[in-house]
Specification:
The protein is of the alpha/beta class. It is 38% helix and 22% strand. A hairpin with a 5-residue loop joins strand 5 and strand 6. Helix 7 runs antiparallel to helix 15. 57% of the residues are buried. The structure holds 5-amino-5-deoxy-1-O-phosphono-D-mannitol. 5-amino-5-deoxy-1-O-phosphono-D-mannitol (M6R) binds next to helix 10 and helix 16.
Length: 616
C-alpha cells in the first residue's frame, strides 16, 4: 500500500509523476503529493487529501517546472488522511523531501530523540521522522545524503521504500528498500522509480528490481548504482525486461477495471494454462514443481498461507491437493501464522499464495517458514515481486495486471494453478490415474470457453437481478465442499465493493446459529451445483425457504429441482466437480459488481482499501 513514483531526466517531472500516481492509485488513495526541484532551484511540494485528481486541481496554477521529482499516493497508517500527513515530507530546514511506503516501527523512539535535539514535527507520520533523521545525520556527521541514508536505514526498524531528493543537488535521487517494493526504470538518459512497474512501462521496458537492504543512487546522466546499505559495497545491477503492455493498464472501453478484469477471464485463464496443459490433456507441465519433484513426492504436509481472496483460493487448493495428492494441507491466514509460533517441520512445503506478491503478512509468513526449514513455493501474479523473489520455487498465474482493488481474475488464475498442481503432483505420486488426469486436464482447457458461455447467457440476467437486491442490508452466501470457499469469496466481493454486510457460510453449518438471521429481508445466495452434496444443499435451500428467505441459486445447467424452489436461478455449465469454483465465481463477481454500481460505489477503489497490503 502507498505508491511511490520518481523521475529524473530531461522531461517535466510533474507530468510523469502525476501519470505515475494515477497508475499507482490502486495502492492507496487517501492523499497524494509531489515534490520537484524547480528550474529556479526551489524545492516545491504540493499535496492534497483525496485522489490524485484533487492534487492536480490544487497544483494547477503552481510552479510545476523541474526535471527531477518524487511523488506519493497514500494509504494512511500513521496519522489521519489529511493534507498535512500527505507525503512528500520536508526535513526541518526544508532542504530534503521524502516519500515512503511502509511503516517504521521505532518511529516514536526516534521522534523523541530528534525532539530532544530541537527538531519539530508538523505531521503525525513516521515518514517525517525518517526524513528529519536523515537531515540530522547529514548535519551532525557532515556527510552526503547517500551516507546519511545508509546510516539512517541502520537506525530505522520496519518496512520501507524511500525516495529522497535534496534541494542542493537537483541531479540525484536516493532510494532505499526494505520489505516494500521499488523498481527503477532505465530510459535514454532518464530514470523512473516506482513501487511497481506500471508507471514505468510506457517509457521503458528495462527495469531493475531493488532487493531488501539496497540503496540506489540515481544520478542524472550517469550509470545507475546500487549499494548494500549495511556494508556500502556496490551490488550488481541486474536489468530485467518487462513483459507487460500499456493496453493491459487501460480500461479498454469498460467503465471499470473490475468489469474489464471479470470479462478478461477467458483470455487470462487461457494464458494461465498456455504451455502447461497438453492439447490431448495427458500431460501437465509446471517447471517450478517438476524441478523439485522429490520435495513434492516426499512431503508429509503442505501449508498454504494467504490473505483475503487468495486465502479463499487456498481453501479450494486444500480440497484439490488432499483429494488428488493425498497430502494433508493446512490453510492459514498469513497474519495469524506469522505470530503463532507455528509447527514447521523439515520437509514441509509452504505455499505463499498472493496476487501482488507483496502482501506483508504473506511475505513474513513465508520468511518464517523458510527460517524453520520449509521448502517455500510461491504462486503469484506480479512478476518480479517480493514473494517470488523470496521463494525457492514457484508458479506465476500469468493473468496480467489486476488493477481493480477487488480481486477477480487473480482468484480464478490461482485456482487454475492449484488445480494444475494437484493433477501434476497426483500424477507424479500415482494418486491420480491417467483417466482422471485426462478428464480434469481436458476440463481445465474448456474453462475459458465455458466462462464465455456464462457471460453470454447470464450477464444481462445478473444485471437485472442486481436491481432487485441493491437495497438489501445483509446477504448470506452458502456453499459446500469445493464451493464453500466460493461462498466466502462471493460474500467478500459484495462486502468490499458495495459495503453491504454479507456472510459466507458452509451451507450445513447455517442451522447451528446463522439460520436465526433468515427472514424476508435477508437474501441467500446458494451455490447448489450438481456435486457430491447436491441433495444436502437442496435441503439447506428448503430450510431457508421455509423461513421466508429469498434464494438466488447458482445451479448446474439443466437443473430443474432447485429451479422450482429458488426465487432466482443462474445456470453454469457442467464440469469436473473440482473445477466448479472457476465457473461459480463468475456470477458471484458480476452480482457484486452490478449491485455496487447500482449503489453508486467507487467499484475500483472502494473506501478504506488498497490493492496491495504492504503493511501489517
Ligand atoms: O495480493 P494478495 O493476493 O496477497 O492480496 C491479498 C488480499 O489483500 C486481497 O485478496 C484482498 O482481499 C482483495 N481486496 C480481495 O478482493
Amino acid at each position: 500500500m502507498c505508491g511511490i513514483v520518481g523521475y529524473i531526466g530531461q522531461r517535466r517531472a510533474y507530468d510523469i509523476l502525476v501519470q505515475g500516481l494515477h497508475r499507482l492509485e490502486y495502492r492507496g488513495y487517501d492523499s497524494s503529493g509531489v515534490a520537484m526541484i524547480s528550474d529556479a532551484a526551489e524545492l516545491n511540494i504540493y499535496k492534497s487529501k483525496g485522489k490524485v485528481e484533487a492534487l492536480e486541481h490544487f497544483a494547477a496554477n503552481k510552479d510545476l517546472s523541474g526535471t527531477i521529482g518524487i511523488a506519493h499516493t497514500r494509504w494512511a497508517t500513521h496519522g489521519e488522511p489529511n493534507d498535512t500527513n500527505a507525503h512528500p515530507h520536508f526535513s526541518q530546514s526544508g532542504r530534503l523531501a521524502m516519500v515512503h511506503n511502509g511503516t517504521i516501527e521505532n518511529y516514536s523512539v526516534l521522534k523523541k530523540a530528534l525532539s530532544a535535539h530541537g527538531y519539530t514535527f508538523v505531521s503525525q507520520t513516521d515518514t517525517e521522522v525518517a526524513v528529519q533523521l536523515v537531515e540530522y545525520i547529514m548535519d551532525t556527521n557532515h556527510c552526503s545524503l547517500f551516507d546519511a541514508m545508509c546510516e539512517a536505514t541502520k537506525r530505522i526498524v520496519g518496512a520501507y521504500a524511500f525516495a529522497v531528493i535534496d534541494r542542493q543537488n537537483p541531479n540525484q535521487i536516493i532510494a532505499a528498500r526494505q520489505s516494500s517494493p521499488l523498481v527503477i526504470g532505465i530510459g535514454e538518459g532518464e530514470y523512473f522509480l516506482a513501487s511497481d512497474a506500471t508507471p514505468i512501462i510506457e517509457y521503458t521496458n528495462k527495469v531493475v528490481y531493488l532487493d531488501d537492504g539496497d540503496i540506489a543512487v540515481i544520478d542524472r546522466g550517469a550509470e545507475l548504482k546500487v549499494f548494500d546499505s549495511k556494508t556500502t559495497s556496490k551490488s550488481r545491477v541486474e536489468i530485467t525486461e518487462l513483459q507487460m503492455s500499456i493496453e493491459q493498464l487501460e480500461k479498454g472501453g469498460y467503465p471499470h477495471f473490475m468489469l474489464k478484469e471479470i470479462f478478461e477471464q477467458p483470455k487470462t485463464l487461457a494464458d494461465c494454462i498456455s504451455g502447461r496443459v497438453s492439447a490431448d490433456g495427458k500431460k501437465i507441465t509446471l517447471s517450478g514443481v517438476i524441478e523439485h519433484r522429490s520435495k513434492f513426492l516426499k512431503t508429509k504436509r503442505i501449508i498454504i498461507v494467504a490473505c483475503g481472496t487468495s486465502w479463499h483460493a487456498a481453501l479450494i487448493g486444500k480440497h484439490l491437493i488432499e483429494e488428488y495428492c493425498r497430502i494433508p494441507v493446512v490453510v492459514e491466514y498469513a497474519s495469524e501464522f506469522r505470530y503463532a509460533n507455528p509447527v514447521v517441520n523439515q520437509g514441509d512445503i509452504l505455499i505463499a499464495l498472493s496476487q501482488s506478491g507483496e502482501t506483508a503478512d504473506t511475505l513474513a509468513a513465508l520468511e518464517l517458514a523458510k527460517s524453520r526449514g520449509a521448502f517455500v513455493f510461491g504462486i503469484c501474479n506480479v512478476i518480479g515481486s517480493s514473494i517470488p523473489r523470496a521463494t525457492h520455487s514457484g508458479c506465476y498465474i500469468h493473468v496480467g495486471p489486476e488493477i481493480g482493488v477487488a480481486s477477480t481474475k487473480a482468484f480464478t488464475g490461482q485456482v487454475t494453478v492449484l488445480a494444475m498442481m494437484a493433477m501434476l503432483i497426483g500424477q507424479m505420486k500415482g494418486t491420480v490415474d491417467d483417466a482422471t488426469l485426462e478428464r480434469v486436464a481436458t476440463d481445465i482447457r474448456r474453462v475459458p470457453t465455458l466462462i464465455k458461455d456464462i457471460f453470454t447467457k447470464n450477464d444481462k440476467k445478473i444485471e437485472e437481478l442486481a436491481k432487485i437486491f441493491t437495497y438489501a442490508h445483509n446477504f448470506l452466501y452458502l456453499g459446500r465442499g469445493y464451493n464453500y470457499p466460493s461462498a466466502l469469496e462471493g460474500a467478500l466481493k459484495l462486502k468490499e465493493i458495495s459495503y453491504i454486510h454479507a456472510e459466507g457460510y458452509p451451507a450445513a453449518e447455517m442451522k447451528h446459529g446463522t439460520i436465526a438471521l433468515i427472514d424476508n429481508d435477508m437474501p441467500s445466495v446458494v451455490i447448489a451445483i450438481k456435486d457430491n452434496v447436491y441433495e444436502k444443499t437442496v435441503n439447506n435451500i428448503q430450510q431457508v425457504k421455509a423461513r421466508g428467505g429469498k434464494v438466488v441459486a447458482i445451479v448446474t445447467e439443466g437443473d430443474t429441482i432447485v429451479a422450482q424452489m429458488a426465487d432466482y436461478v443462474i445456470e453454469v455449465p457442467e464440469i469436473s466437480e473440482c473445477l466448479t469454483p472457476l465457473l461459480t465465481a463468475i456470477p458471484l463477481q458480476l452480482l457484486a459488481y452490478y449491485i455496487a454500481v447500482n449503489k453508486g460505489r467507487n467499484v475500483d477503489q472502494p473506501r478504506n482499501l488498497a490493492k496491495s497490503v504492504t503493511v501489517e
